[in-house]
Amino acid sequence: MTTISRYLAVQVIIGLAIATAILLPLFSFLDLLDQLHDVGKGTYAVKDAFLSTALLLPRRFIQLAPFVALLGNVIALGRLAVGSELTVMRAAGVSPVRISLIPIAVGLILLVFNLILDQFVAAQLQQQAISTRAAALEKSAELGKGLGIWTRDERNILRIGEMLHAGKAADIEVMHFDDNGFLQTYIHAKYADFIDGDLWELSDVTTKTFTGNRIESVNTNSMKWKSFLNPDDISTLTKPPESLTPIELFQHVRFLRATGQEADAYALALWRKAGGALTTIAMLLFSIPFVFGSVRTGLANRLILASMLGMSVYLLDQIIANAGLLLRLNPALIALFPGLMLILLASLWLRRIF
């Protein structure tokens, strides 16, 4: 790496840091206001609101990454342009393309960092924030008390009324159907302990067997039941789609589709992670003509224009995702379309500039 390349890379990193220092506290403050709205409910206190907001910081940074890339590059290159450093570089024979490659390379490193952060840090902290907040508010962290968690395989429907902790559940219902789709066995248990793998021990059990016109009911203190879910599957079912890691999402989508269940919400969450990477690339490309294509425009004006673009992209992405899910469109198409279109538009703009 040449001296000029190193200098440009450092300036871009500084620009990204400045953009992060602007955007992350702003959106975290909005998160905190949302958390403070629930203070006083249950045992939820002000310190819990601050803790939940802090735990959500990595997830918020990942969501803001495309706009951090856009504003960070505009700040970095804009500062160089205002100081006439870009003019000096070009007079020294450094082409605009070479100058542009450095911010894009740093942005790609940012993408890799976000992927690692999402897989190993952000999801775990977000899940901790959700469970801690739900416990303080005395709510179920899954679907709300009385609704429970519903899932199935080819022959069984399972309802878990409430997860008491990672190894114990309450209010369990199991419905087993025959090959013709008729209810064969109904099991209700007050509690279920997850013993090992997919083996459960049910307590205070009522079993009803349907044979022709007869219904036989048997009550037992406890019984072993081999579930079609393992503890990891149960853990995934209790988490919102956006809080899962990419690997967890992929595995859960495969599980839902294999058992004939609705998987669009989880598939969309998975594809939106890829869509976010495309949007970040698009924002990196857009940041270049903001500087080279606006030589007479001041840095403040460039930042305002870049901010307006970022807000428009964010709103467009949210509208397309929600509308697509409502209309049951292909999740991959919904998630990838905005990023691909933005990359195309940025490429066309770059061709006009260079």
UniProtKB/TrEMBL annotation:
TM region(s), chain numbering: 7-30, 61-82, 94-117, 274-292, 304-326, 332-350
Top-level division of the source organism's lineage: Bacteria
Annotated GO CC locations: ATP-binding cassette (ABC) transporter complex
UniProt KW keywords: Cell membrane, Membrane, Transmembrane, Transmembrane helix
GO biological process: lipopolysaccharide transport; transmembrane transport
Locations listed in the record: Cell membrane
Principal subcellular localization: membrane
UniProt topology in membrane: Multi-pass membrane protein
Protein name, per record: Lipopolysaccharide export system permease protein
Species of provenance: Nitrosovibrio tenuis
